[in-house]
Amino acid sequence: MLLFDFRRHGGSGAARSTLGINERLDVLGAIAYLRTRGDVEADRFGGWGVGMGAYALALGAAEAKGVVALALDSLYPDVPAQVDRLVRARVPPLLGRVVPAAHFLYNVYFGCRLDRFAVSRRLADLSGRHVLLIAGADTPDRYAEERAIYDA
Length: 152
Known about the structure:
Number of helices: 6
Number of strands: 3
Largest sheet: 3 strands, parallel
């Protein structure tokens, strides 16, 4: 078993969080580390992540074929959906209506095309893996997002 901190979490350095995009590299780094150990099977890994951890794990697993089992708790479909949720939680309700207008800024802020990292578009890359999706008692719209991932 390996437990680690993502960048900008726990005891890690002060790198900016990218809500799973760059954190997928931490997952890939953990897999690379585990492959160097003689006490684990180098081609069969499993992972469990919650929220951003689930997102990073899903993206990392799509790139690392050795991940054969995933438990994804509170997985969001893409970074814009999560940013919208975070922003709406911090602004007055009347300003919540303008959140979609800020989408054009997301690619600039994160420094990449976010659609390249949408888990909802990478599900085919997880084909043949054992995937457990866990939907919490979140808001109905959050449950609907997770249900759409499940249905896909």
